[in-house]
TrEMBL record:
Ranges where the FAD-binding FR-type domain occurs: 104-204
Keyword field contains Ligase: no
Keywords: Dioxygenase, Oxidoreductase
An example molecular function term from Gene Ontology annotations: 2 iron, 2 sulfur cluster binding
Transmembrane segments: none
Protein name, entry field: Benzoate 1,2-dioxygenase, ferredoxin reductase component
Boundaries of every 4Fe-4S ferredoxin-type domain copy: 30-62
InterPro entries linked: 2Fe-2S_ferredoxin-like_sf, 2Fe-2S_ferredoxin-type, 2Fe2S_fd_BS, 4Fe4S_Fe-S-bd, BenC-like_FAD_NAD-bd, Beta-grasp_dom_sf, Cbr1-like_FAD-bd_dom, FAD-bd_FR_type
Domain (2Fe-2S ferredoxin-type) ranges: 3-97
UniProt organism field: Halomonas beimenensis
Repeat as UniProt keyword: no
Pfam families: FAD_binding_6, Fer2, NAD_binding_1
Cofactor: [2Fe-2S] cluster
Entries under PANTHER family matching the protein: NADH OXIDOREDUCTASE HCR (PTHR47354), PROTEIN RFBI (PTHR47354:SF5)
Length: 342
């Protein structure tokens, strides 16, 4: 038996390691050449302290309270030198990846498909090389090198973790570096280099209703999240509000319809800003966040969209006195990684 442990570092890099049954996270990391912080490895100093955001584990009782207090343990703090997982886990490591002598992963792949979905968005599919390993948490992003340049652009996965074909929903930016490549030169069979995964915006364990708010190509990470939920199942209500500027900017609604069949607890609504639209729901996503989807605050909210949308939702929550149980958001600009913009 082996468990997958996602180590999320302070600089946004995520590294996945395998942990054998009965093995501590610290030992597993060192076995795979990830030097997590440590001084004693005996539960005495507290140097290896982190936070387990997701998963089951045993800490035993062979550590000092000076290293980890009962209050800290109750909040999910762990000592990686004592933490023995009994499931897949996500652990926050409060140092930069470079200090742990590990680096963000790099993989190569071949363009399988590039398609203009609307004037506003492009879908890119990449087949990873045989044997390439690219684990990520649904919602995270990756850097893609722009061929012929020394630049990269960052995009959230729209595909499920573990798939050999990765997909991305990319905003078509006028005169954009990657947009120009994809619309003018990119053809199936071309080679691309990817670096990642990265980002703190990802799907947590679901224990209550979920509200997803997507703006434009901010839909991408939610497609990845929904893929995982549809595969694993979810008994909590999941509602998505997907907002765009114009009618023809609505894309991937066929995929959303398919999720309704695969995930019975999932519903979604689309919203169009354009006042000239005949769409049944017009305005902004904040105009359509009624009491039913807010569950009296007993809800986990995920938000991904351009900065004005994120700011508008934050102001709406403040103005209405809304305090969801948890709130995770990512705002992006066309030339900036989602995680860097948050």
């Amino acid at each position: 038996m082996s468990y997958t442990i996602a180590l999320n570092f302070e600089d946004g890099v995520t590294r996945f390691i395998g942990c054998k049954e009965g093995e501590t996270v610290l030992d597993a990391a060192y076995r795979q050449k990830v030097n997590l912080p440590m001084d004693c490895s005996d539960g005495v100093c507290g140097t290896c302290k982190g936070h387990c955001e997701q998963g089951e584990f045993d800490m035993g009782d062979d550590y000092l309270e000076e290293a980890l207090s009962d209050e800290e343990a109750a909040e999910g703090q762990v000592l990686t030198c004592q933490m023995v997982p009994s499931s897949d886990c996500v652990v926050q490591v409060p140092v930069a990846s470079t200090l742990c002598k590990t680096a963000v992963g790099q993989v190569e792949g071949t363009v399988a498909m590039v398609e203009s979905l609307s004037e506003d968005s492009i879908e890119l599919a990449i087949d990873l090389d045989d044997g390439a390993e690219l684990a990520f948490l649904p919602g995270q992003y990756i850097h893609i090198d722009v061929p012929g340049t020394r630049e990269h652009r960052s995009y959230s996965f729209s595909s499920r973790p573990g798939a050999s074909r990765t997909t991305f929903l990319i905003r078509n930016v006028p005169d954009g570096l990657m947009s120009g490549y994809l619309t003018e030169r990119c053809k199936p069979g071309e080679r691309l280099s990817l670096t990642g995964p990265m980002g703190s915006f990802y799907l947590r364990e679901i224990t209550r209703p979920v509200l997803m708010l997507a703006g434009g190509t901010g839909l991408a990470p939610f497609l990845s999240m929904l893929e995982q939920l549809a595969e694993k199942g979810c008994d909590q209500p999941v509602h998505l509000i997907y907002g765009v500027n114009k009618d023809d900017h609505l894309v991937k609604t066929d995929a959303l319809d398919a999720f309704k069949d695969r995930l019975p607890t999932f519903t979604y609504a689309t919203v169009v800003v354009d006042e000239a639209s005949d769409h049944p729901r017009k305005g902004y996503v904040t105009h359509h966040m009624d009491a039913e989807v807010m569950h009296d605050g007993d809800v986990d909210v995920y938000l991904c969209g351009p900065p004005p949308m994120v700011d508008a939702v934050l102001k709406h929550f403040d103005r209405e006195g809304i305090a969801p149980q948890s709130f995770h958001y990512e705002k992006f600009t066309p030339n900036q990684a989602p995680g860097e913009a948050a």
